[in-house]
Prior knowledge:
2 domains, 7-stranded mixed β-sheet
Amino acid sequence: MLALQQDAPHQPAVARDLATPQPAAGEVLIKLRAAALNHRDVWIQKGQYAGIKLPCTLGADGAGELAALGAGVAGWEVGAPVILYPGVEWGDKPAAQGRNFRVLGMPDPGTFAEYTTAAARYVRPRPAHLSWEQAAALPLAGLTAYRAAFVRAQVQPGERVLVTGVGGGVAQVAAQFCAAAGAEVWVTSGEEEKVTRALALPLGLRGGISYKQANWGRTLLQNTGGFDVIIDSAAGEAFGTLLDVAAPGGRIVFYGATLGNIPQLPAAKVFWKQLSILGSSMGSEQDFDNMLAFVNKHQLVPVVDKTFPLAEGEAALRYLEAGQQLGKVVLTC
């Protein structure tokens, strides 16, 4: 089978032929039809991810058909269309992942391949209204967005929500989910053109602004009066502006820190405005099931920006790194 592997940091990913894996007891073999990229894959390439163990087949997101069932697997048939939970061993505490939790695609073999095996407990039916590419775009972004919005921040209908960095896959799905739940959703991006493109998509957004615009926080406050919930992936120096645009009693949840650590946190703004600051990362298998039920209920469709064949996976990674996408970048297997 063909697989896209990372041999060492600071090197291009290589498409090569590997032996097709066989399912052990309790596992299934999946013929992958599509696999989506995440910035995590780029960070692993660049040596900027914790606990790197290479070589490894990259990729956390995948959708395909069951090709074989290992001993003891019941309730599935060969040929069934499925998607994968993008993690392994969350643990038995819903509040947070356990010490053994890890994301597919390093150190465990990932989804940038024609075939992969997985424990049957991590396989779910593909939402019937989604194509292979759309289904592959959903797992990691959808899981992270769902937990941040509904488990951690507890977004409610009628609340005003700000989602930062809408060019990112998780941010885009978070905005789409919150709008589907009945919230009034605003977005930011570093590029005005991306804000315009996002508002033109059928995501249900109310408005947006470039965070490179002068006094963007003040403008948002004038237009909205403040946000009940803010969903962020950047942290860094911009976090102070998020405190400013949060409404009294607001909740700020962040699932990443692409701009680095928060250099200074003015305590008075937090306690005087009665703010809650929440961390979130990935999600449990129950979160995944709840996310899929939400997607099926609202017939939500992830946005796919561009597809590449698996053999051109390195070009897809460079396209993602360039940051011009609006939606997910997907490999067809």
